Amino acid sequence: MILLSARDLTRQFDTDPVFSGLGMEIRRGDHAGLVGPNGSGKTTLLNILAGLDDPDTGVVESPKAIRIALLEQQPEIVPGRTLWEEAALGLDWLYALQREAESLAARMSEQEDARSILKRYDTVHAILQQHGAFQLDHRVAEVLEGLGFAPDEFSRDLSTFSGGEQARASLSRLLLSEPDLMLLDEPTNHLDITATEWLENHLSRARPALLVVSHDRFFLDKVVNRVFELRPDRLDSYPGNFSAYRRQRAERQQRLQKQAHRQQEFISETKDFIRRNQYGQKHKQAADRVRKLERVEEIDQLDDFSVPPMTFGEPGRSGDLVLEAVEIAKGFDKPLFSDLTLRIERGQRLGILGPNGSGKTTLLKALIGELEIDKGSVRFGTGVELAYFDQGLAGISARSDLVEAVRPPGNPDITPGHLRSLLARFGLRGDIVLQAFGNCSGGERSKTALAKLAALNANLLVLDEPTNHLDIWACDGLEAALNEFPGTVLFVTHDRYFIDQVATQVLVIEPQCCRLFDGNYSKFLSFRENNVSPKNRPIAPTDRPKPTTAAAKSDESAPDRKRVFPYRKVVDLEQDIAEAEARKSRLEEELSDPTVHRDGDRLQQVSRDYDVVQDELVMLLAHWEEAIELN
């Protein structure tokens, strides 16, 4: 069933449209991701689909009974409403039915002839039972705790929470309301890793259809079964999760490049034939080939969402020991970490992760001397030169243009041309480099701060949430740059994909200890899920109780197979497979039609559609096999 369809959408704010001619369909069971570079119009498109903005051209249609809800990045907050009340609004209609059922029960006990009341009571009771409404408070508490709220916060006024916490409260309300289609704009913003993992599991099992904008590649891999790529003049659809989208896009681009190469060879050969024969005996054939050339349509290449060629230079070599902390401790109103001993050696890339409020940034600042420690000692090795990326970007004046913002202190001789070249390596070119830092977007400010780090030519990079505000392609560029960097990297991030690509070690801050794991995030996950320890060691004491015998046995048992795809009924998947196979047959007929081959534009479109349906069938069949086994 089609929940929402859009045709010929165009939206323009400036001289050039943000996008034009877009079309899409969202069906029941779709868990779709929407990707594209910063500024491509993803939030604008979500607002149009939700009815909060009107397109300049085009229409958005959905059946009247379909409920569509949008998670906004900056929700409106009603003063005086508690956190619990905000979340419970998602189940308001069920709470109303509960109150009606209680009222009907009371009226029945007071009246002798209550047949009409009993009939209504039976109807209300059946609805409540169907929707599991006899555990509403449990459902609200489960979602709030899953998103990282503590029970003692439930009764707090929502206005006393931070902006990020208020956004999480709005997300809880939307999840509980279970509309037919959820439009989610960066739902993992303000979530720590634990809450993000809970949200992934929740959405993977969710009945509503999803269209989600996110830069979290790990999240997209876990949640979506389809990816829309937003381009200025179209939406391309790819079946599967984010990794499948990347693979298919690369393969499609390679095919198009080969087709374009063959087309250029044909054009070159044809022009050569025309040049040699336009006045000779074969002048008629030459004239015919002129007409053929006029009908040739240039093969449309995919947009090059370029990865900035970021580099951090070739800094001077430090000693083998870069940083050593011995039994350090730090706390404010409560201890954050204590008796922590850590040794970082040259060439290591150490990622620090833990829940919100666990002290990740505090630890980072304590290690580099930005914060005074309560106990212990920290020392740097020989020849260490440090550069620090502050997630608040406090070290750059809002009034400086980007060229001056990246100038190293005490080095006035570096030319503006050199600084422009440095900014270009981080994807900042043209007039943007003359804008004031404070007037730039979040992504542009983050890239500027990274370029400033590169200008310092340090051999120890200390990064606090460096991927904030960066789009997927900029994250790719940063990962590549750090992996090629010959120095040492110490970083805090909530981006699990980034940790997976960059870290050689992972430091996990837990409530009562810190643990160091050799390897990346995937190796840490393997340890956590299978309880098979790689090279790892507690590096701070813990007094956590040992697991019970039953729990230990549970840990030792082999893990059940986990779903790759969201839950769907087998019969629904079989219907989708039949429809896809029918579309494939129709496209094969068109591909064998000589008239289609004479129309270059039509041939390209049919070929693209055939590639899409082929990929869709592969994913549907894999989904069907999983459903047969696990449903």
Question: What can you tell me about this protein's structure?
Answer:
The chain has helices spanning 42-49, 83-88, 92-110, 115-130, 136-146, 163-177, 193-205, 217-223, 242-277, 283-295, 360-368, 402-405, 416-425, 442-456, 472-484, 496-502, 521-530, 549-556, 570-591, 594-598, 600-630; strands spanning 2-12, 17-27, 31-35, 57-61, 68-71, 181-185, 209-213, 226-231, 234-239, 321-331, 335-345, 349-353, 375-380, 386-389, 460-464, 488-492, 505-510, 513-518, 536-538. The chain has 21 helices and 19 strands. Strand 10 and strand 11 form a beta hairpin. Mean pLDDT is 83; it is low at 532-538 and 541-559. Helix 5 (136-146) crosses helix 6 and helix 9 (242-277) runs antiparallel to helix 10. It starts with a strand and ends with a helix. The strands form 4 sheets. The chain has a 7-stranded mixed beta sheet, sandwiched between helices. It has a 6-stranded mixed beta sheet with strand order 5-6-7-3-8-9, sandwiched between helices. Strands 2-1-4 form a 3-stranded antiparallel beta sheet, covered by helices on one side. It is flat, with a radius of gyration of 29 Å. It is 44% helix and 19% strand. It has 5 domains: 2-67 and 179-240, Rossmann fold (3-Layer(aba) Sandwich); 243-305; 321-385 and 457-556, 3-Layer(aba) Sandwich (Rossmann fold); 403-454, no CATH class; 568-631. The chain has 631 residues and is α/β, with parallel strands linked by helices.
Largest sheet: 7 strands, mixed
- By CATH reckoning, the class of the largest domain would read Alpha Beta
Number of strands: 19
Number of helices: 21
CATH superfamily of the largest domain, by name, is: P-loop containing nucleotide triphosphate hydrolases
The geometry reads as flat
DSSP helix fraction = 40-55%
The CATH topology of the largest domain is Rossmann fold
* CATH-defined architecture of the largest domain: 3-Layer(aba) Sandwich
**Alpha-carbon distance between the termini?**
21 Å
Beta-strand residue fraction: 15-25%
Structural class call reads: alpha/beta
Numbering strands along the chain, what is their spatial order in the largest sheet?
14-15-16-12-17-18-19
Number of domains: 5
What do the pLDDT scores average to? 83
